[in-house]
Design goal:
mainly alpha, 4 strands, 25 helices, about 475 residues
Length: about 475
């Protein structure tokens, strides 16, 4: 650019922050200060600090803002609050929170409690109740809807139930948006019976209401029930949207019998019957269904004939199917075409990893599971390392550490609930199956593909994906 002003600089700064490139954002901000570029976006800088979870840098930025008189701005305070929760400094976040009285600040606090020490739902419940009782929070329809959405995303089941009771007392129980959020929240927290009750209690429903209930059944791998809801939806005369078909196609992956022909028919009917053009997410769902039922070559052929460049989600659906059916030939071809398709991201559970008690507990649990027949699935390690190194890498998988933490910190007989934002690997799936047997505990795991329930050495899903 021949000329640059603060708008162009801010665009770059915001772009780094929005794309989770915290270090680049801070470096760019330092350059802006050095060249005396005025009018920079402070919220983007604060967001960058939160992304890095760098407490020292975060405090320096906070001091910089206070020194130059920006600390009392409402938007700045909200960003600072979120920054401190991401750094694990809940006490500092609480001080900022009680200067505000909005649902955005509350949701940042709840997200922080979820991140801190592998989740603090009890703290979130007490914090929410205290905020309401002290009159610190004014809730409207949007605030209730947003807060319930956070509870569902974080798996805060008890807090969600508490908020439901507050919703009813506040007179928002019949609101359409709140009702939809209740259905979604309960299904994401593993409470499908409550989700159905909330749906049935709604005086008015829209397509989002039906989608939320169908999504719940798909999340719980109840394909037949999802299709039953679709039949009710059709009879009620509700016009489906694009999301409806993403969910319905995915439901065929979890039906009790092979209904792939019905799935193909539904997919092909989208445009002529409902005027909905199939998009990338519809193709990804269809690939998942075809692969799940063993039609891997057909799924690969369909991908190669797509009228557009396949996205990562489509390749990943095919790769997951190759793992499920041990189809190494197609799997290798997929890996060559899209090398990042099988990559996974580590989950930040440093509080658990740093705990000697948790590590020692996992060592004992691992031995017990191996006595019951568990064998480390080193084939799931994609790094080119020695066999013993693969076993070491598997040891630190987040699902294992979290399950151990749950066993150590909960009462005997209590259900262990785990929430992951990525797919559980096949080795962890096998491990949790054995844990449920040796510990005599039920385990509920929600990952990117839905719910997995383990009890007495058995599981509810067809293998791990």
């Amino acid at each position: 650019m021949p000329e640059r002003n603060f708008i162009s600089y801010n665009a770059i700064l915001a772009g780094f922050s929005h794309n989770s490139q915290g270090l680049n954002a801070l470096n760019f901000f330092t350059m802006m200060v050095r060249f005396r570029v005025l009018g920079f976006s402070l919220t983007s800088v604060i967001t960058a600090c939160g992304l890095l979870a760098d407490l020292e840098t975060s405090r320096k930025i906070h001091g910089f803002l206070t020194k130059f008189g920006y600390g009392s701005n409402a938007h700045i305070e909200a960003s600072l609050l979120d920054m401190y929760t991401r750094c694990g400094r809940m006490r500092d976040a609480e001080k900022l929170y009680f200067n505000q009285n909005n649902s955005i600040a509350l949701n940042s606090m709840m997200s922080g409690y979820a991140r801190a020490r592998n989740g603090q739902p009890d703290e979130a419940v007490s914090h929410f109740r205290r905020s309401l009782s002290e009159g610190k929070l004014v809730m409207d329809e949007t605030a209730w809807t947003t807060t319930l959405g956070v509870c569902g995303a974080l798996g805060f089941r008890e807090l969600g139930k508490q908020i439901h009771s507050f919703v009813v007392k506040a007179g928002f129980g019949a609101d359409l948006g709140v009702g939809n959020s209740l259905v979604s929240m309960y299904s994401k927290c593993g409470e499908m019976d409550e989700a159905i009750k909330s749906f049935d209690a709604m005086p008015v429903r829209d397509v989002v209401s039906w989608n939320s209930l169908i999504a719940g059944h798909v999340l719980h791998r109840e394909g037949d029930k999802a299709l039953t809801i679709w039949s009710r939806m059709e009879k009620a005369g509700v016009i489906p949207d694009s999301i409806t078909f993403v969910l319905l196609i995915a439901a065929y992956k979890h039906t009790s019998s092979n209904l792939v022909d019905h799935c193909r028919t539904m997919f092909l009917s989208m445009k002529p019957t409902y005027q909905i053009e199939p998009a990338s997410e519809h193709y990804a769902s269809l690939v998942g269904v075809l692969g799940s039922w063993g039609f891997i070559e057909e799924a690969e052929k369909m991908i190669l004939e797509l009228p557009f460049e396949p996205e990562v989600s489509i390749w990943k659906a095919l790769l997951d199917s190759c793992r499920l059916h041990v189809n190494t030939a197609v799997g290798r071809r997929v890996a060559k075409k899209h090398p990042s398709g099988g990559a996974s991201r580590p989950i930040d559970i440093r509080a658990c990893i740093e705990s000697v008690l948790c590590i020692r507990g996992l060592e004992v649990l691992l031995l017990e599971c191996m006595r019951s027949g568990y064998e480390p699935g080193t084939s799931f390690v994609l790094h080119e390392v020695e066999e013993h190194q693969k076993k070491d890498l598997l040891f630190y998988h987040s699902a294992k550490l979290t399950a151990t933490y749950g066993l150590l910190m909960t009462s005997p007989g209590q259900v262990i609930r785990i929430v992951k934002n990525v797919h559980v690997c096949g080795d962890c799936h096998s491990f949790l199956k054995h844990v449920s047997a040796v510990s005599e505990r039920e385990i509920s795991l929600r990952d990117g593909s839905g719910f997995h329930f383990f009890s007495d050495g058995q599981y509810s899903c067809r293998d791990y994906c």
